[in-house]
């Protein structure tokens, strides 16, 4: 029985290390019991930039742009928790992921509490050990906070802000070899599921 619904949102426009790490995170989430997951990638999708035209604010009818965000919106609103993963681009999140986050203005314009108390975790995958993973994680956390979501990390000693993975620019193989990075993923996902259970009033 699925009691918790977790959305995994991959912000990489290509298949590789970020896909691998997020899928591994979702697999770990399912291993914790009564967790159902959905994986969505920006890869191959038509996602326009937010125009800040205020159509969503004026009409309360969602976004004026009709593209692949419609599918993503449905999954975002139905999930109890999100795991958002990004490759590090120039010290921050990918442009594709930033466009997705910006377009969520349409959700909260219709209902400011649409995403309230959903739990969010961030994963950043970089080619260098200190390649901008923490700024990328904080960018995602800022989005969570602005949307009334609850950001989590795996806690002190290895995953203070969230999950940070070093791929050594070797794709999925490099990410898999980063044992400490994978540990930060599992600690963060465990905390995410734990907090959702608390919010649902389940004993832990």
- What profile does the largest beta sheet have? 6 strands, parallel
The succession of helices and strands, N to C, reads: EHEHHEHHEHEEHH
Give the helix proportion (percent range). Answer: 40-55%
Number of strands: 6
Mean pLDDT: 96
- Report the oligomer: single chain
Q: What is the structural class? A: alpha/beta
Percent strand: 15-25%
Assign the CATH topology: Rossmann fold
User: What is the CA–CA distance across the termini?
Assistant: 17 Å
The CATH homologous superfamily name equals: Flavodoxin domain
Number of domains: 1
Cα-based radius of gyration, to the nearest Å: 16 Å
Give the low-pLDDT segments: none
How many H/I helical runs?
8
CATH class: Alpha Beta
Based on the structure given, which CATH architecture is correct?
3-Layer(aba) Sandwich
Shape designation: globular
What does this structure look like?
This protein is of the alpha/beta class. The chain has a single domain, classed as Flavodoxin domain (Rossmann fold, 3-Layer(aba) Sandwich), CATH 3.40.50.360. It has helices spanning 17-31, 55-59, 69-78, 95-103, 105-110, 133-146, 171-177, 179-199, and strands at residues 4-10, 35-41, 81-87, 119-126, 150-152, 163-166. Strands 1, 2, 3, 4, 5 and 6 form a six-stranded parallel sheet that branches. Strand 4, helix 6 (133-146) and strand 5 form a beta-alpha-beta unit. The protein is globular and about 50 Å long. 44% of the residues are buried. The model has no long low-confidence stretch (mean pLDDT 96).
């Amino acid at each position: 029985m699925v009691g918790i619904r977790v959305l995994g949102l991959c912000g990489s426009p290509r298949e590789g290390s970020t896909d691998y790490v997020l899928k591994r995170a979702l697999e770990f989430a399912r291993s914790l019991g009564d967790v159902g997951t959905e994986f969505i990638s920006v890869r191959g999708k038509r996602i326009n930039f937010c125009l800040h035209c205020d159509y969503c604010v004026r009409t309360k009818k969602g976004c004026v742009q009709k593209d692949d965000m419609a599918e993503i919106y449905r999954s975002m609103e139905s999930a109890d928790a999100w795991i958002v993963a990004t490759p590090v681009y120039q010290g921050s999140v990918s442009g594709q992921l930033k466009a997705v986050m910006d377009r969520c203005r349409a959700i909260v314009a219709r209902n400011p509490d649409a995403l309230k108390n959903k739990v969010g975790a961030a994963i950043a995958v970089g080619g260098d050990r200190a390649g901008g993973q923490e700024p990328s994680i904080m960018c995602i956390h800022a989005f969570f906070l602005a949307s009334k979501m609850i950001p989590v990390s795996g806690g002190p000693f290895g995953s203070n802000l969230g999950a940070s993975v070093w791929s050594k620019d070797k794709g999925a193989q490099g990410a898999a070899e980063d044992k400490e990075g994978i540990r930060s993923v599992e600690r963060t996902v465990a905390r995410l599921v734990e907090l959702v259970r608390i919010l649902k009033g389940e004993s832990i």
